[in-house]
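Reading a protein record of the kind used here takes only a little practice. Each token is a code from a learned vocabulary of local backbone shapes. With that in mind, consider the following protein and its fold in token form:
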Amino acid sequence: MRTPLIAGNWKMHKTIAQSERFISGLLPLLYAADGVEVGICVPFTNLQAMVDSTRGSRVEVYAQNMHEAPEGAFTGEISAAMLSEIDVHGVVLGHSERREYFNETDAALAEKLLAARNAGLAAILCVGETEQQRADGQTEAVLAHQLDRDLALIDAEALAALVIAYEPIWAIGTGAVATADQAQAACAFVRSRVAAIDAAAAESVRVLYGGSVKTDNAAELLSLPDVDGALVGGASLEPESFAAIVGAAAT
């Protein structure tokens, strides 16, 4: 059995003071949420505060990006070793906003996944198609292209430990959400693509759904056989709504 993961991606939201208020409100709401892992993906400036405030709790702290190089002349970037040093649990890689707005390439993501693995960081790799690509029947081709290139440098052990978030770009922040059939088909395809690399890893890898996940649709999405959790955007910004989604995944 794969343990569900509910990860909240704050994007560019919350100061340290706001994040402290959030976590103090969230932790009491999670005491009964058994059988589920919980993560918050926070801005760089909040990482140390959230690592300190969640220590000893079930909440794991993720960065939203990192550079693939161990060090160098990369102004404004953060390395895997810098995240590891402050006890960050993991990192989100390849979010569609990073791909679209900051020209993140699959070649760079392959290097980032390897760097995260070598630094002992958990990784959540994001993949997904645009509305036009889905309309053109290209969803599986897009996912295959991304996965084949992004996973090219990691071994089977790292692959089995990976989390892959399927996020249809047309559903991110739009209020639209994939139907249960669409979400299951895409997540099953992601798993099948991993199986083509290593069958055992495909049974262990967790595939999340992301894209306008809310309290009123979480239970249906999380009940799908190939959906092992959710990467939550706007609904993760308030403790009550985020805790309710965690509760929907709990045993």
Residues 108 and 166 are 19 Å apart (CA to CA). The radius of gyration is 17 Å.
